[in-house]
Write a structure and sequence with these properties.
The complex is a heterodimer of chains A (250) and B (602).
Chain A lengths: L8 H5 L1 H9 L1 H28 L3 H32 L28 H25 L4 H28 L4 H39 L2 H13 L5 E2 L13
Chain B lengths: L1 E6 L6 E6 L2 E7 H5 L9 H10 L9 E4 L3 H14 L7 H11 L4 H9 L6 E3 L2 H10 L6 E7 L6 E10 L5 E10 L4 H11 L8 H8 L7 H7 E3 L5 E3 L16 H7 L14 H32 L3 E5 L6 H10 L4 E3 L8 H14 L12 E5 L2 H10 L3 E4 L2 H13 L4 E4 L2 E3 L8 E5 L4 H12 L8 E5 H7 E2 L4 H4 L7 E3 L16 E2 L2 E3 L5 H14 L3 E6 L11 H10 L4 E4 L2 E4 L5 H8 L7 H4 L3
Parallel strand pairs in B: 1-4, 4-5, 6-11, 11-12, 15-24, 18-22
Antiparallel strand pairs in B: 1-2, 2-3, 6-7, 7-8, 9-10, 13-16, 14-25, 15-17, 17-23, 18-23, 19-20, 20-21, 24-25
Classes of the chains: A mainly alpha (250), B alpha+beta (602).
């Protein structure tokens, strides 16, 4: 059973980026509020696992895990709100967050129909990675004892989470647990790739559509605006229900 | 005929099955996927409906989608063109969003269900709302008014419906108000401005309104111009939902009303900002009420009909509904249990059955319980495995026991039969509690619902007792059947019903007719015998941010992690023990390898 004291090599390489993110009050606030939502979503997914597993011990463990995650969400949210009050940010200035698509809870893992061994392997890998990152974040907020204390508390929970998931995995799949862990790592990597690829594709799509917007659309926009001028506001006659063909999408 | 109705891809997707003219089942996708307001294609809901009716997709005569996707795409594209060049940022998002999935409904349905494409039909969005309101109401002829954010182009429609003696039915929507002029979007814009989630938290604005005064109504009136024909038009300079996907209000809106509330900033009603936000809520609420009441009055004069069927998301506004009943001249106002988009799944199926296929009209059962049923045995098994106290009781004993628990101040999770279709818990998936003290309200907010303090809790009362405690106008009991109206609590009872009396002395009361939920009715009577007040606090069985529970294990998991004391499902009652085993698992090390053998499931 592992106890994480430092992050993964990739995360350690990213230290300057992490320092840049956590060094600014607004970015720190945004990060905390994003974590709040991610932990809460993750907690709900694990709660779902507790609802569907046929294994009573796993049900109790998942429940405890879910309660932890939901509590982490509350801790991050409360701290975010306290920082928000301190720096007085307003309205939509903080909207946004993660620009990549996906990322709900447990990386959009489908809980229903997922066998326990696969879920346990996934949770173990995810918790281990999260613990590594949180260990780095803890170092980044040395100047902020309250946020640091939150990371310390969460790290203690994460160690429990990654240990119980591993132990239970060896119980439910004693012959194949190593393979499941490797499979979970590969799947996590693949999901990462898909998210990045979708993000890049999204950027290309945005650029292409924006070019089209300014190159192709202007004459149509002129026509549409001219037509709009002729439209009176207020009640307009509805088309009779029978006039539209039931099979028509128009 | 077997007709499946589907609503999806905007918010709160759902499926409903109509067989031989009657609903057989209907459920929102969120209740099965466990993601609140799940807007995805409702595959779980469809599968459950087909399983429940023991049908294969090939048995379906038609699958009806609740709107016309290409007409909606036309509106999105036209709106982007009209807002050129300000719409340059929202255009890629809108096009990707629409072309990604939303316009390919026929192909998606065909590929998921394997039904021939010719069997996939479409209705107008507001026709589905109208059908959901009219065909489920116990009336033969009625005026129909629908209002929501937006469907294809229409945001509000007015007309009438008739179920004729020869068995044929008609819905005639005579006129409509079109996008971007929308009462739903006006309200949603204020929802966003007040820091709440659009399409989800509109009812928070309504709850907040009671704490404010409509001091800003003149400013809000500038945003909504009334027209000579009784319609209205939004002043575009105050809004941004037609030009950008990021924010629904403009800088001018902020200039008039002040800075918006940050979603994470707690709402402090004692602060100047908090009072301003409450006044904003009160102002937009008053304006919305004034407009819909005026439109309903004109519709009443025009049709001369005594009944009104209300549909669309705006019909969830209980304050406005109560004023329509009181002031418009209609004698009865019918609001279905699911007037929003999820209800369109049922509306689309009924519309196709009655209008497209000209099938004979049939009376639709007047209840909201079309979802999956709860199994008390599932609860008993899980609770026993966890070492909880489990009792399996005869109905009379169970009712008496729960009444005693409630009278003793315990909070009860109550699951009974099929779950409700729609956003309201109407006695089958409810958290029940004694309604007498504000401490109970605070306890529920703090330990269970974890929600804002300004939000009221609703009471439930039997129809025969309702008038004693609440000032119900003629037709009020009908409006309260599905918790669709807000009425005054009689002054003499306000202190005895403190947990369910809002700050303005009102309550969104559920008026329960015995045949609709006989066990809850019996519980109310048993509680009344003990306390002389046969009223209970009834709130949805969920915690903040989660859908209402559906199955026994979901109720049990909610029970385990919040302050509910007793859980009843079917004939099973679980009482929470002081020290729950799950709490000690982490410390006990029961999960660790050395103890695995003892914990292994047989």
């Amino acid at each position: 059973m592992a106890v994480v004291t430092r992050g993964a090599p990739a995360d350690r390489l990213m230290r300057p980026v992490h320092r840049w993110v956590w060094g600014d009050a607004n970015r720190r606030l945004r990060k905390l509020l994003t974590f709040a939502d991610v932990e809460t979503d993750g907690g709900r997914d694990i709660l779902r696992a507790a609802e569907v597993t046929p294994d009573p011990l796993l049900r109790r463990l998942y429940l405890e895990h879910a309660i932890d995650e939901l509590h982490h969400g509350d801790l991050f949210r409360d701290r975010g709100v306290a920082l928000l009050r301190a720096i007085g940010s307003r309205g939509g200035a903080l909207s946004g967050g993660n620009p990549l698509p996906g990322g709900h809870g447990l990386d959009d893992l489908r809980i229903d129909g997922e066998p326990d061994h696969r879920l346990l392997a996934f949770l173990h890998v995810a918790e281990k990675a999260a613990a590594g990152r949180f260990a780095i974040y803890r170092e980044m907020v040395d100047d902020d004892p309250q946020t640091r204390a939150i990371f310390e508390q969460i790290l203690r929970d994460e160690v429990f989470h990654m240990n119980y998931t591993y132990t239970q995995l060896t119980r439910v799949a004693p012959q194949t647990y190593r393979r499941h862990v490797w499979h979970a790592r590969a799947k996590r990597l693949w999901n990462r790739y898909l998210r990045v690829a979708a993000g890049i594709a999204g950027v290309f799509g945005n650029v292409a559509l924006t070019i089209m917007y300014f190159v192709v659309l202007p004459p149509f926009a002129w026509l549409a605006k001219r037509a709009a001028r002729d439209e009176a506001a207020g009640w307009a006659p509805s088309r009779p229900a029978r006039d539209a063909s039931p099979g028509s999408q128009y | 005929m077997k007709i499946l109705g589907i609503s999806a891809h905007y918010h709160d997707s759902a499926a409903a099955l109509v067989v031989d003219g009657l609903p057989v089942c209907a459920v929102q996708e969120e209740r099965l996927s466990r993601r609140k307001n799940d807007a995805g294609f409702p595959i779980n809901a469809i599968e459950w409906c087909l399983d429940h009716a023991r049908l294969e997709p090939s048995d379906l005569d038609a699958v009806v989608f609740y709107e016309r996707p290409m007409l909606k795409f036309e509106r999105i594209l036209t709106s982007a063109l009209r807002a050129f060049p300000q719409s340059w940022r929202s255009f890629p998002h809108a096009i990707k969003n629409t072309l990604g999935e939303k316009v390919w409904v026929r192909g998606i349905v065909a590929s998921h269900l394997g039904v021939p494409r010719r069997r996939i039909l479409f209705t107008d969005h507001h026709a589905a709302h109208a059908a959901a309101a009219f065909f489920t109401a116990p009336t033969r002829r009625a005026a129909i008014l629908t209002a929501d954010g937006v469907g294809e182009w229409a945001t509000m429609t007015a007309g009438h419906g008739e179920r004729r003696a020869d068995g044929q039915s008609e819905i005639t929507l005579k006129r409509e108000i079109r996008y971007p002029h929308s009462l739903g979007l006006l309200y949603s814009t204020f929802t966003a401005y007040l820091g709440f989630k659009v399409n989800e938290d509109e009812y928070k604005v309504m709850g907040l309104a009671a704490y404010g005064r409509p001091t800003m109504i003149d400013q809000v009136r500038k945003m909504v111009r009334r027209l000579p024909d009784g319609a209205f038009a939004l002043a575009p300079e105050y809004f941004a939902f037609h030009t950008t996907a990021d924010c629904s209000y403009s800088q001018r809106f902020v200039d008039v009303l002040g800075p918006p509330r940050h979603p994470y900033d707690p709402l402090d009603l004692d602060s100047a900002d908090g009072r301003r936000f409450a006044d904003c809520a009160a102002s937009v609420q008053r304006l919305l009420e004034d407009i819909v009441v005026d439109i309903a009055m004109r519709l009443r004069r025009e049709t001369g009909l005594p009944d009104l069927c209300l549909g669309g998301g705006v019909a969830l506004n209980g304050l406005a509904n109560a004023r329509i009943l009181a002031e418009s001249g209609f004698e009865r106002v019918f609001v279905p249990p699911s007037p929003g988009d999820s209800g369109c799944a049922l509306g689309a199926a009924l519309f196709a059955d009655r209008i497209y296929f000209r099938n004979a009209d049939r009376d639709v059962p007047d209840h909201p319980f079309w979802g999956p049923a709860v199994d008390g045995q599932d609860l008993a098994r899980a609770a026993r495995e966890d070492g909880q106290g489990v009792d399996e009781l005869d109905d009379a004993v169970l009712i008496d026991r729960i009444a005693a628990d409630l009278a003793a101040g315990r909070i009860v999770g109550w699951m009974d039969g099929a779950c409700e279709f729609g956003p309201r818990a109407l006695g089958h998936r409810s958290i029940l509690a004694a309604p007498h003290t504000s401490e109970m309200r605070d306890r529920l907010n703090r330990d269970i619902k974890r929600r804002e303090e300004f939000r009221p809790f609703a009471p439930v009362v039997a129809v025969e007792d309702a008038d004693r405690f609440f000032e119900l106008p003629s037709g009020g009991a009908r409006l309260g059947r599905f918790m669709s109206g807000v009425f005054a609590v009689r002054p003499a009872w306000r202190s005895a019903l403190a947990a369910v009396t809002h700050v303005d002395g009102s309550a969104r009361v559920q008026v329960l007719d015995r045949p609709m939920a006989p066990r809850l009715h019996a519980l109310l009577q048993a509680y009344g015998r003990r306390t002389n007040i046969p009223v209970l606090l009834n709130t949805s069985f969920n915690v903040a941010g989660e859908p209402i529970v559906t199955r026994a294990l979901e109720g049990y998991m909610t029970f385990r992690r919040c302050g509910i004391d007793v859980l009843a499902a079917g004939s099973t009652v679980v009482t929470k023990r002081a020290a729950s085993p799950a709490v000690s698992l982490k410390e006990s090390g029961e999960w660790s390898s050395s103890n695995v053998a003892a914990s292994t499931v047989a």
